[in-house]
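Q: Can someone sanity-check these two? First one:
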Amino acid sequence: MDIRFSQADLDFAEDVRVWVRAAYPAEMRKAVAASPHGRIGRDEHVWWQRQLLAKNWLVPHWPAMWGGGDWPPARLHLFRLVLADENTPDFAGAGVELLAPVLLRHGSEAQRRRYIPNILDASHWWCQGYSEPGAGSDLAAVALRAKRSGGRYVLNGTKLWTTGAHKADHIFVLARTDAGSSGRQGLSFLLVDMRQGGVRVEPIITLDGAPSGDHEVNQVFFDDTVVPVEDLVGEEGQGWICARSALEAERTTQSSPHVKRALAELRRAVGDDPALRRRAVMLEIDCLALEWTELRCLAGQPPMGAASILRCAGGRLEQLAEAALYDSDGERGMIGLDARGDAVCGHGPRYLNGRKRTIYGGTVEIQRNIIAKQCLGL
């Protein structure tokens, strides 16, 4: 495996940077920078995703028939590094990074043709419906009921901590289609149109977003919500297989570009503080190890338990980098002051929001159990 960066790769990365700086509007850049979490309006996220799609740079690692470009791992990695370094917006919802890999692997041809184009051009904004009040880290306890009635399923129940549901028009859910089942058996993976009646979204205001009213997570209620049978992905009762694919995609989403973005901020903030400088250096070393593990995964040679390893290591490093940034603010970590003395957002809200990194997508405790079994044979 050769994942070294050639001069051609480095030249390509510079071309990407030049394009991004020309295509990324200054007002959008300011809005992303001003938000404690990089949150901007739905329209702005959609606009940026469509710019990448028009450039054929949205999903360069996908199969060519679905808009991919068969990029080698080094080039894909450098591309993502540039996007993170330029602080570009995230993709529109959970469609590109979470649902699309499930459809490409487990969906029917009709489902792929119906949904993937709308995922790519962001006509559909998807959110993920896994966790419930009684099923967080233990998704095998999912209780959302999906009862078959002729050519449709009828959903009743709720999903919790649903990121971006207040912006979404579609949600993919893990639901129990066999009322007498328990654990991972009897679960199915369903695609739900949220624009119909019987779907209600309630915001959950967390500590990091309360001051501005900005929020990220929600509770979604289903009351006799209808899902056509053709929107069942995979086989009925085999939804755990699809859900696991989405979780693996989430856990292997590259963290090193985001860690490097935080480290670049930290380098500018540490000044002559020896304690912060030492923390930054140690994080740089750990980030390098994470980066090479990610490159091995991109090259198709992931180590045993790679998804869980990346999940634990990436989440931990992001938290440590955000904590160091928060400490660099001193007493003004929550409400900072700019050069003119005007109040601006410090790193505190970002630090508080980042506390969830070791919980969502499967807690680190669960991931360590997986590593113990897969890597250590315990």
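And here is the second, same format, sequence then tokens:
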Amino acid sequence: MTVAAKIVSGDEAGLRAAARVIAKGGLVAVPTETVYGLAGDATNDRAVARIFEVKARPQFNPLIVHVADRSMAAKLVSMNRVAERLADAFWPGPLTLVLPRRRNASVSLLASAGLETLAIRMPAHPIALDLIRLSGRPLAAPSANPSGRLTPTEATHVAASLGDRIDLILDGGPCAIGIESTVLDLSEATPRILRQGGLPQNNIEALVGEMASGSDIGPIRSPGMTAGHYAPSIGLRMDATSVEAAEALLAFGAKPLPGAATTLNLSVNSDLIEAAANFFSMLHRLDDRRYSRIAVMPVPETGLGGAINDRLRRAAAGDARSRGD
């Protein structure tokens, strides 16, 4: 028997309860001025993996990381002059900035989908800001709905779609804006709108001038959707049933293949949430010129396995030896 998540008021008692859930790696639906977000500790790999699992998100697309103030943002991303001007004008508010990730950023690599950028914003909602402050950490918080379903703008919407899969729902009433934030990529020389949203484009252009947009490059795409984008420098092959002595092995399950130069195991217990949580960090650790290539044992396509395999296929796209033995 499943138990629906408790809906609590966003008062002090509710916020403290929510902060305790976050500290334990749980998930909380939190109101923002745009939509309700599915919030988890952005520094906790497993909490981030649970977000993807709960949303049934088909791919590991980057998540927006929410901060309470500019100093928290500055610890995670490199804020250039344009970002500073935009933050002065529109933060807190419905503007997400994609910026270069700092090398020592505490945010899970899974939250940024292994990219060298982070999508970051400061929400303009007292409950969201108070929860971030009480939690003492940035929160990853995509919309609190299953992927492909209607975006929630009230607590009851979240309860109807995710109520038995998350730990707590903070009720802050209806969202003031009701559509997602505008996403602006500042990681390249020319600012680019990746997603239209709650902040009109002309408001941004008034500060930064003319920008590129998704329409300039065909359909709007999330960062990291191109094949090969995640390719390790030493190459990668999937569905390995044997391993060469010079290869690094990314294992899955209780029986890793013998004979590799080194082995890391996504999950000894075949837990796909644990595997997703470990995925990007382990790929980074194995991407070392001491090894000839990374061999990856088969991962089931069920649940988060589909997202893991999607990223593996992209990573293997540039390697002619990418499949099997």
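A (reply): Looked at the second one. The radius of gyration is 20 Å. The first helix runs from residue 12 to 23.
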